[in-house]
Amino acid sequence: MFGLYISHPEVSIDPDVPIPRWGLSERGRARAGSAAHSGWARRLGRIVSSDETKALETAAILAAASGVTVEVLENTGENDRSATGFLPPAEFEAAADSFFAQPAVSFRGWETADDAQARIVRAVTAVLDAHDPKVPIAFVGHGGVGTLLYCHLSGVPISRVHDQGPGGGGNLFAFPLGPVPASVNDPGDMVFSLARHRPVCKWTRIEDWQGWTDG
């Protein structure tokens, strides 16, 4: 079956409010609602969300369609940018370029990309280690750490070339669940390895994804 990583759609930006507490804008809510009417959203048997407001609001809209209860997962928030707080768009884009280009280096006190990737991979792996792979699951979070997870799953170095791109978020990528052979020499020895579950699609707008095709 399938797993999804979903980035929240557009938010209401308020420089006077801490970034983790920003909520969805009207457009963001509308896009999440459109995605919730899709077939793939109704198939979800489990929804796990970052504790940031915009992610929780996205998860709640999807959960209303699937009938599941949102689970809040610690340590899955966006990369910690509290050292600078809100940055105007042009400054933020330059900062994001630096964040991805030098993953071991902190931009003005930000959490490094290496540390953020390790954090999101640990959290997602811990959930999937105990998850029934027959149940479709969605992780709802953020574009930055989502891209870092995508790079890990894809087996590629951290790079902004794999970012979700412009548009305010509201994208997803899918990956298969279930154990894989521990080695090509012993196909009967099955283990779960997040790093060996390659995404089956690149970042795709949540209202445009056509869903998982079994088999």
Notes on the protein architecture:
With 215 residues, the protein is α/β, with parallel strands linked by helices. 33% of the residues lie in helices and 17% in strands. The protein is built from six helices and eight strands. It has helices spanning 26-36, 39-43, 53-66, 89-101, 113-129, 143-154, and strands at residues 2-7, 46-49, 70-72, 137-141, 171-176, 180-183, 186-191, 204-205. The strands form two sheets. It has a six-stranded mixed beta sheet, with helices on both faces. The protein has a two-stranded antiparallel sheet with strand order 6-7. Helix 3 (53-66) links the parallel strand 2 (46-49) and strand 3 (70-72). Helix 1 runs parallel beside helix 3 (53-66) and helix 5 crosses helix 6. The protein starts with a strand and ends in a 10-residue tail after the last strand. The model has no long low-confidence stretch (mean pLDDT 92).
- Pick out the low-confidence regions: none
Distance linking N and C termini? 9 Å
Order of helices and strands: EHHEHEHHEHEEEE
Give the beta-strand count.
8
Query: Shape from CA axes?
Result: globular
